Amino acid sequence: MGVPGLVSERIGQFFVEDHGARDRLEYTEYGAGDAWVVLLHGQLMPRRMHQPLARALAAEGLHVVTLDLLGHGRSDRPADPHAYSVTAFAEQVVALLDHLGAPQAVVGGTSLGANVSLEVAAVAPQRVRGLIIEMPVLNNAVEAGIVAFAPLMFAARFLPFTVNGLRMLTRPVPRGVVPFWVGIGLDTCDQRPGPMAAVVHGMFFGRVAPSSRERRAITAPALVVGHPKDPIHPAADAAMLAEELPNATFLRARSILEWRIRPERLDRAAAGFALGCWATPARQRGRQRRTSS
């Protein structure tokens, strides 16, 4: 896959209602057509993290949408922990497909986005053409996840000046003058204490992912990408998931940074997988298991 060509990009919004609240969600579309792909970000990160991959996939003829889940990026950020769960996020993805008029999509994401993608396949399997799962957070990541995110929840709840102070320092930095991934880091620091605590609390104490039994019932084709030497997203979780899913391909990344700084190999794999999902009628898709390295 060479340098992606120019593709159209459009920003849109829609609204979801839950427990009497009406919240606005924002998304970006890349390209056009009926071969839909939805990409979902990691926890506390913005949808812009998937801009390079979205552009690469759209240049191959796919219609790609990146979504800011509730509490993230430019979408609304309620401070109620009950607003946040993997199931609620999955319902937002289905609402996005309804808003776009997309009967089905290849749904994929990173970390939190990977878990939400699995949840979409569990709660609305008829809407999922395929899955692109990078760094799922499952059984082997529980302890590291607590170590990584519990201090953030504590700071947001009891030391809100630390969150506000970091936001004041990072928000004025022009994103156009720093490297792309530095900008994503700065965007991730643009948090407000109440919503940030609510998001982390909701993920700690709510449903994190479909159960192993539910995952084994997901028949959509899946590309599962695992990283070595990543304690929060251990490759063991990705490998376990690839064994559980009936129609999965496991692809081992060379490092946690490969898809960030040298994305060509993984971009090719994702594009080939997504195009293959759309080239094959759903009723004819087999369940052959493959492993890539």
Automatic annotation (TrEMBL):
The keyword S-adenosyl-L-methionine does not apply. GO terms for molecular function: hydrolase activity. Residues 36-141 form the AB hydrolase-1 domain. InterPro entries: AB_hydrolase_1, AB_hydrolase_fold, AB_hydrolase_sf. Keywords: Hydrolase. It comes from Nocardioides taihuensis. Pfam families: Abhydrolase_1. This is Alpha/beta fold hydrolase. Gene3D superfamilies: alpha/beta hydrolase.
